[in-house]
């Protein structure tokens, strides 16, 4: 019988060569091995040596082959020849494209650089694109963070010098209780999957807080199906219970936070509510040893959490008093928040008790000696093995900033930040607010901007306002409408430019930001804004330049298209200056490099920007003799220095005695060193520096040596954010810069220096009885970028998206499998297929984001399921709140940072007859690449 069996090659030759680079199918930035056969991509697997994924690769990463070979790839620069939105273009040369772009941009730069609005999507090179915009001179630059997760990032940095996701991670090796809030499957997916697997293998518990039980929440040991927008209230109820039980880490709070810092309690003082300082500007605490005020960081000082200070008849109290007074109030008792959150009081108390039990009864002690910033030596590192993680689910609300602050308050009260078993920062974080720049907006014709666009305000003096008090930026970032913006407001750019509020622009320049479709609130309205003309017949937004690798919906609305490469065809820099790939145990950065050369007339976007800069002679890109500093992006990565010895990449720099890491001169062979090492660099943190980073002088010295800081930057966590109190004081009538009258009450209410909760704004702008249902989107694990749904492999996982409906609504509307529903909001109406989901908050519906496509885009067939059964909730959302009757335009955003409040949406739903396809159904757009083949097949190698 054996002789008759066929001979099967069980180990076929996979490739001729393996080229190691960095994935781009989501924001994890995993290491990948790209197997090549006959010069083509044959197979992609994970790189086992890579610090991020350690060989693990998801469906998205493996499907990168299909992304690279997608029929929708743009082939050459395009010049519009038909009306905007017609998709009628002619292919032109790069010389002509750059000539056109420079011809539009150079006059703007010389006359008024603010007439350019330059906004980018998930380009992962923001240190470079911001450098380009700064040297152009426009104040109008930002990336996608303003409509993604700026609340999370800004709240974390203002509170503790870093946040979740790229800023830090749980201590997967030691945590015993892991609690996630609002985490979908798209962000950091491989590391989180690996981490959850690790902690569950040793019996640690996972609690998932999310209205939707999918992905990570589906494998959680306990699921809390919270009502959307109430996470902050739930968290503060946990804080209430911990304070009542005395289950907080008093020693940690006294040593490492501003809980013992004195607050000016004189209501007649212009500094009422500000933190008290000595003559040198040092924060003051009461020293337990002397009973007298002392600088918080004085050698040997023992800050007292309970002592007060009486001066001139006024008793000044520490932050801890204010905190306890607020959160021990019945306002935050589980009984009072239960109905609103959709979580029983009994369950809230049980979760609080479990947090306390694990934190204080299962503490971890590591025998690592370390010295703190006060000079005190510690023989051990004590850890609270409770860790948290959170993302867009709690961030994308109009109360998101304060909700994120509440979560940071919770973990700090437990003493579980930067300790064994808790949340750990990833280098280059932690960074105190004081180390970050403030935003800059001074425009000078023909000159660079006076400093970086984005940063962290310290008070009203840092707002981006013109001399007359009007916004300096087109998106109104860093104004009284959203003073602590940090990432800008990309979702408001087109709307504001169209309205001429605060001013008109000439050119809109965007990269990989699909603003005419899934990246836009109010999709139909934005399309109209992009195509509308004024009385003279000219487009209201005169010129649009767009760059993308694919024929997305946005391409049709551009006047000039600069085609990008795929991620396997270009150089990229995942830099410590920007969004690095670090883990808590080490600093790391990485590159992408052209493992294959493009077979089309395309250029990497960063290289296109350099060529454009060279054509215009932009400062920063031009030598004193007028010659170009950089020929392309690879040249920039190697030779650019942000300051002497510090460049985009930290590895393999030139020191006085040869190659070094961190600080050093440019090295012409640097990229080759990265390629030889698998596309990444990592430098591990010594064991005695791995925890307590903000206060550990060993870590501080290590960070200075590597170039993360210029000098040691120890600091304490800000439970009480003084910057916010400064804005409140201005609203109360103090200082030279004060908000307009219509914003005074909002500033006073929302910019509270201690975390608060207030209902999402849409709740007060619509009739909650008419629109009783919350509506959310999540990105699926199998897709991240909107271009995932044109991927031949990934489409088989998610080719369409239903609206998931909870049992309560399903039964009330008498839905059955195959039914459709009409869903309407105060802004619009859609008709979509529905599906039943029991593991869902009873007053919430949801769907996958960015599955629905417009006919004609992405080289898909007009009858593709994405275009007929797929849909967007974006048609129900608006960038503005419903009018209040005061004649003002109120952005649908967080009032502190301006983050888009995607998840505040309220709707009503009813059963309806099934249409031929999902509604609204827009007319097909003409694609410059046409339609792809019915079958996508090819053979690599022989």
Automatic annotation (TrEMBL):
InterPro entries: Asp_de-COase-like_dom_sf, Mopterin_OxRdtase, Mopterin_OxRdtase_4Fe-4S_dom. Its main location: other. It is found in: Cell envelope. Belongs to the prokaryotic molybdopterin-containing oxidoreductase family. PROSITE patterns: 4FE4S_MOW_BIS_MGD (PS51669). Residues 16-72 form the 4Fe-4S Mo/W bis-MGD-type domain. Pfam families: Molybdop_Fe4S4, Molybdopterin. Residues 923-942 are annotated as: Disordered. Its cofactor is [4Fe-4S] cluster. This is Molybdopterin oxidoreductase family protein. It comes from the Bacteria. Keywords: 4Fe-4S, Iron, Iron-sulfur, Metal-binding, Oxidoreductase.
């Amino acid at each position: 019988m054996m002789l008759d069996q066929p001979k099967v090659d069980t180990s076929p030759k996979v490739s001729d060569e393996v080229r190691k680079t960095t994935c781009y199918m989501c924001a994890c930035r995993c290491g990948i091995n790209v197997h090549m056969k006959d010069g083509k991509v044959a197979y992609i697997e994970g790189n086992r040596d890579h610090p991020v994924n350690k060989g693990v690769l998801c469906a998205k990463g493996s499907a990168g082959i299909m992304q690279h070979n997608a029929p929708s790839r743009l082939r050459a620069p395009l010049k519009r020849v038909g009306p905007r939105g017609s998709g009628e273009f002619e292919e032109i040369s790069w010389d002509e494209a750059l000539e056109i772009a420079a011809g539009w941009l150079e006059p703007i730069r010389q006359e008024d650089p603010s007439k350019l609005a330059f906004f980018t999507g998930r380009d992962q090179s923001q240190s470079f694109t911001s450098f380009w915009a700064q040297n152009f001179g426009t104040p109008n630059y930002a990336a996608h963070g303003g409509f993604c997760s700026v609340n999370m990032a800004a709240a974390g940095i203002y509170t503790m010098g870093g946040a979740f996701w790229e800023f830090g991670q749980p201590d997967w090796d030691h945590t015993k209780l892991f609690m996630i809030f609002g985490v979908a499957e798209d962000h950091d997916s491989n590391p989180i999957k690996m981490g959850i697997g690790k902690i569950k293998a040793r019996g640690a518990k996972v609690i998932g807080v999310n209205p939707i039980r999918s992905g990570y929440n589906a494998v959680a040991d306990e699921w809390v199906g919270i009502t959307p927008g109430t996470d902050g209230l739930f968290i503060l109820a946990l804080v209430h219970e911990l304070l009542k039980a005395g289950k907080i880490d008093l020693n940690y709070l006294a040593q490492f936070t501003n809980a013992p810092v004195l607050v000016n309690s004189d209501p007649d003082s212009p500094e009422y509510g500000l933190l008290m300082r000595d003559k040198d500007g040092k924060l003051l605490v009461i020293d337990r040893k002397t009973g007298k005020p002392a600088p918080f960081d004085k050698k040997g000082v023992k800050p007292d959490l309970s002592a007060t200070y009486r001066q001139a008849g006024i008793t000044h109290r520490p932050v801890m008093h204010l905190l306890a007074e607020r959160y021990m109030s019945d306002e935050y008792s589980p009984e009072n928040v239960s109905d609103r959150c959709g979580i029983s009081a009994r369950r809230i108390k049980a979760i609080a008790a479990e947090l306390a039990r694990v934190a204080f009864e299962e503490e971890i002690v590591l025998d690592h000696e370390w010295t703190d910033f006060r000079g005190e030596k510690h023989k051990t590192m004590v850890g609270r093995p409770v860790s948290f993680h959170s993302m867009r689910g709690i961030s994308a609300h109009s109360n998101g900033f304060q909700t994120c602050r509440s979560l940071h308050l919770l973990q700090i009260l437990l003493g579980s930040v930067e300790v064994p078993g808790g949340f750990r920062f990833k280098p280059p974080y932690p960074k105190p607010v004081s180390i970050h720049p403030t935003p800059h907006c001074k425009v000078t014709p023909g000159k660079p901007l006076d400093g970086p666009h984005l940063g962290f305000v310290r008070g009203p003096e840092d707002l981006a306002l013109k001399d007359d008090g009007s916004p300096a930026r087109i998106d109104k970032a860093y104004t009284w409408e959203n003073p602590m913006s940090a990432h800008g407001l990309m979702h408001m750019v087109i709307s504001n430019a169209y309205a001429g509020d605060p001013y008109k622009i000439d050119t809109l320049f965007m990269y990989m930001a699909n603003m005419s479709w899934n990246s836009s609130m109010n999709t139909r309205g934005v399309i109209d804004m992009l195509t509308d003309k004024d009385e003279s017949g000219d487009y209201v937004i005169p010129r649009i330049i767009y760059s993308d690798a694919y024929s997305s919906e946005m391409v049709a609305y551009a006047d000039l298209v600069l085609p990008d490469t795929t991620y396997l065809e270009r150089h990229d820099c995942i830099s410590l200056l920007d969004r690095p790939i670090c883990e808590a145990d080490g600093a790391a950065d990485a590159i992408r490099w052209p493992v294959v050369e493009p077979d089309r007339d395309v250029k990497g976007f960063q290289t296109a920007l350099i060529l454009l800069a060279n054509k215009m002679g932009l400062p920063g890109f031009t030598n004193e003799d007028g010659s170009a500093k950089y020929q392309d992006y690879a040249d920039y990565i190697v030779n650019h220095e942000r300051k002497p010895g510090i460049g985009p990449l930290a590895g393999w720099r030139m020191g006085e005695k040869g190659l070094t890491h961190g600080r050093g001169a440019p090295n012409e062979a640097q990229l080759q060193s990265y390629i030889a090492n698998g596309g990444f660099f990592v430098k591990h943190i010594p064991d005695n520096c791995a925890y307590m980073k903000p206060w550990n002088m060993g870590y501080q010295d290590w960070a200075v040596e590597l170039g993360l800081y210029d000098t040691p930057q120890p600091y304490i966590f800000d439970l009480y954010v003084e910057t916010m109190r400064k804005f409140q004081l201005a609203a109360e009538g103090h200082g030279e810069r004060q908000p307009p009258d219509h914003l005074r009450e909002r500033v006073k209410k929302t910019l509270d220096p201690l975390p608060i909760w207030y209902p999402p704004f849409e709740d007060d702008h619509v009739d909650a009885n008419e629109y009783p249902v919350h509506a959310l989107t999540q990105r699926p694990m199998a897709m991240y970028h909107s271009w995932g749904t044109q991927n031949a492999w990934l489409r088989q996982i998610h080719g369409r998206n239903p609206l998931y409906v909870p049992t309560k609504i399903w039964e009330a509307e008498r839905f059955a499998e195959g039914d459709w529903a009409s869903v309407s909001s105060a802004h619009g109406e859609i008709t979509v297929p529905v599906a039943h989901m029991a593991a869902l908050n009873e007053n919430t519906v949801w769907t996958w984001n960015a599955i629905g496509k417009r006919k004609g885009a992405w080289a898909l067939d007009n009858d593709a399921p994405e275009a007929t059964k797929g849909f967007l909730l974006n048609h129900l959302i608006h960038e503005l709140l419903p009018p209040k009757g005061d004649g003002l335009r109120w952005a649908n955003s967080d009032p502190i940072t301006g983050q888009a409040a995607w998840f505040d949406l309220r709707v009503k739903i009813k059963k309806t007859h099934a249409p031929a396809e999902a509604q609204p159904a827009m007319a097909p757009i003409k694609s410059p690449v046409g339609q792809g083949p019915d079958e996508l097949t090819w053979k690599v190698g022989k």
